[in-house]
Amino acid sequence: MGFQIxxxxxxxxxxxxxxxxxxxxxxxxxRLATQKRINSVADDTSGFNVGKSLxxxxxxxxxxxxxxxxxxxxxxxxESQLISIKDMITQIKSKIADASNPAxxxxxxANDIKSxxxxxxxxxxxxxxxxxxxxxxxxxxxxxxxxxxxxxxxSTDTLVVDYGQYLGxxxxxxxxxxxxxxxxxxxxxxxVIAVTSTTISALDLDSFESAIDNAxxxxxxxxxxxxxxxxxxxxxxxxxxxxxxxxxxxxxxxxQLNATKASIGGQAxxxxxxxxxxxxxxxxxxxx
Length: 288
Description:
Elements lengths: L8 H26 L10 H55 L6 H21 L1 E2 L2 E2 L13 E4 L7 E4 L6 E5 L6 E3 L1 H11 L12 H43 L3 H27 L10
Antiparallel strand pairs: 1-2, 3-4, 5-6
Helix pairs in contact: 1-6, 2-3, 2-5, 3-4, 4-5
């Protein structure tokens, strides 16, 4: 030990050691308080950038998963109404068969068929999901291009639901409210609405029913794809969140150990700093 009293080198070294220990203790205590390993970019620059990128992708995938859910809800709405329309077509076909009986009241049967036809027309015109028509084309309907949903983190990761190609068109139902419907639908449904006792036997709904069947098949295929997208997104979100956790979440046990270690070291350093700070007083003995 030197005998300088103007600059206490030992005390300065002890002070620097104490400052470092206090900094370590503070960092561990902050991590314990926030439960985060990275509380500033300086803690881990590369980890921060990777983690934030993953967090963004998780948010986008969660939004995409919401889109998938909305798409399935929309398809369920369209499917339910199309099944109902198919059932009504079956009713009409049954009544056409009944009219082949010479003893049948064809006028009453024609009125029944017309009533069912008007209900089908109303169903096509009024089936909507959030004010978007599902069974007619045009600016607010399905059209041939269908509905596009973002189903992944990238804006280009989309799924087009195009069952409307079998339903939409440029036709209008005569004496009905459905417009921009497929030509076969418009022709067949117009004939049903205008049916009389003498035209029952001329009714043919095969093309109309085929369009409904094709649309239902397309909806089924789309739902299968959406289910696969949903399963993938669920897995991808969970894995990405696990990666974010590894980067950002603090190991509470390790940080508690580090905080305790730094605290004990700080107490020892404080005691040594006090002793080294008094060391120059030994020089006073040379001045007596």
